[in-house]
Amino acid sequence: MLEFLATLHPGWFALLALVENILLVGVGALLGHVALRLPGARRLTPDPGPVNPLELALVGSTTLLNTAVTVAGWWLWKDGVIVLRTDAGAGTIVELAVLVLVMDVLMYAGHATVHLRALFPWVHRLHHVFADARPITLFALHPLEAIGFGAMWLVVLAVHPFTVGALAAYTALNLIFGILGHLGVEPLPPAVRRNVVFRWVATPAMHVGHHAEPRYNLGFYTTVWDRLFGTLEPGYDRRRTADVPEPYPARPA
């Protein structure tokens, strides 16, 4: 597969990257709508209603920018800046864990930065226009945020030669966490949420809480940094362990 990608004309690779990113949005939306219909799913924010044109436009621009990042990564790989390995085994699981932990701290830091008073109105506030999130809200980003996340991702790949398997697994995991966090519901049953693992691994309700109360829950995959820096929403653990999680109050329009 890597040999085939290395020989592709740039135009054909760009088209392939565009198709890949459109499919990621489509698969994410489909998974989200399935999760919304799980028997135990509890809505924590009001139903968002119909999709508006601004949200669709942002999803479209993010898809195009993600395609550009994919193409940039391809060029860096062809030039030897990014090295991909094809070996498999237990090392792939270790690399996946490293990727998740590294990206978790970087994304927390980046997320906290765009919530600074000087930056929030110009960049991240656009994402928070959609307080009552839906699956595609994950992709409704200001262009600078999409570029920033993409650049962060490429720098991480350039620092260490990861395996293709670890990258594919991380991409899937990132999509699952992103979609589940933008449903406005908690689909996990109480017995799962109460497990000690989910004290540290973020449940869907964590990012739902961020959209309801934007100053809290800045992490993505874990609660580690929010607990450490005091940005965990005070009612999060109560909702996480409750039989029926309490909905968040409706945010003023």
Automatic annotation (TrEMBL):
Residues 97-231 form the Fatty acid hydroxylase domain. InterPro entries: Fatty_acid_hydroxylase, Sterol_Desaturase_Related. Keywords: Membrane, Transmembrane, Transmembrane helix. It holds the Pfam family FA_hydroxylase. Its main location: membrane. GO terms for cellular component: membrane. This is Fatty acid hydroxylase domain-containing protein. It is found in: Membrane. GO terms for molecular function: iron ion binding; oxidoreductase activity. One of its GO terms (biological process) is lipid biosynthetic process. The chain crosses the membrane at residues 12-36, 56-76, 96-116, 136-156, 162-185. The keyword Cell wall biogenesis/degradation does not apply.
